[in-house]
Each structure stands twice: as C-alpha cells, then as structure tokens.
Amino acid sequence: MTNSRLRAVRAFAMAGVGALALACVAGALRAAPTAPPRDHIDVGDASWHMESSSDGITLYSSPHPDVGVVPLKVVMTIPGTIEDVALVLEDLSRRRDWISNFGLSVLLERPNDYDQTEYLRVHLPWPVEDRSAVVRVQVSVSDDLRRALIAGESVETPLADRLPRLVRAQVHASTFQMTQVENRVEVVGLVFIDPRGGVPKWIVNYFTRRGARATLAGLRRQVARQLYSPAEILAMHRRIAGYRAFRDRGAAVP
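Predicted structure:
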C-alpha cells in the first residue's frame, strides 16, 4: 500500500473521532436498548482489552467479526470542566486547529440545543478520494450535571444531497462520555467507524488507533488554550442545566 493511502486512512480515523463531537452537551444518560443491533457495542462490554497506555490516554479494542472494523474505546482525563470541553467540541470554526486533514463541517439540521445533524468532509491525499459522513448527534446530561453523553451515528437525509457524497463513511453507534471529577473531566470515547472504500480493514484498524490518540491529545491541548470568555462558559452551563426541563417538557428551554 502506498504512503498516500496509509496517510488517507489515518486522516479519516482522526476525523472520525471528531465526528463524535458534532454538538453541544446536554441531558440524562439514556439506557442501552434491550436488544442492541449487531453493529453496536457498549463501553462496559466485557470483551474490551487494553491495547496501549501513554501520555494519559489509554486505548482499548474489542473484536467485532460482524462488521470487520474493530471498535475502539479511549479513556483519558482533561483538566477543566465539561463546559470547557463542550465549547471546543461545538466550535466548528476552530476544528482545523486540532483535527488533522479536516475538510468541512456543515450543520444540516438543529431542531433544538440537544439534537443536530451534520455533514463532515475529510481531505485525503491524492490519489485517494476524500471521505464524507452524515451524522446525527444527540446529547444528554445527568440530573446532577456531572455527566454528559454525546451519541452519534450515521443517517441518510436529503438535506445532504446538495453536498458531495464522495466515499460515504459509516459511523456505527459511537459515544463520547464526560464525567466531572473535581477540576478535571474524565472522558470515555467509543469510536466505531468504517471509512469504506478499497482500504483493507486491518489497515483501517491500525490507523484508527493512531488517529484516536493524536486527535484526543489535540482536543486536550485545545481545551488548555482557554479560548472562550466567561460569558460563553456561562451560556454553555445554562444549556447544560436546561436539559432536564427540555427532557421533561418535550420542548427547548429558552
């Protein structure tokens, strides 16, 4: 396989982690379905085993023969608050600062603060074609406001028809969970993405591991830059705190 194809797989794997971060934070953690689909794995599944641990980032993998692409679980700690991390995740204009080969993010639909659909494009080196993904992201926060979950999965929508389809990646059920513990945020991310195309699955799996580590290290550095004002942090806190009323009333909170 050429170096350009290897770089291509790595680039999409890195942006795949970014696909988990397409929305703001909100609401009470949802229960897992009683009969999960075959392309689903839970972060608490007993099949996870540790792959590596360095620089405060631990990677776990789990075999999943039904799909071929190996799911990846990432555990790390980020100094700061859930609001700090959420502001970085939501900031489309600065994603290029911490996601390598980032191409484009287009917000397609946002019916409320806790649910949105986004088109994501990743630039890959010639001769490999760029990848795209259309992901619906729903967010939830526990009643004590100390835990937030971002859940994303590929969807089909005519809202993306005006944008290049390219090679459409498949994002299986993936999550990004944040728990506030004193002055730090404990993160557990589950990345389950198939970039599709003619790249062998073992190559995809190898570069997903490398890409996940690089991207989350970039997220941690971006949070440490403290780019957002006290007013922006307060606004994010109010949105997080407003989820419970949104959930109970079935309508967005002013």
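Summary: The longest strand covers residues 102-112.
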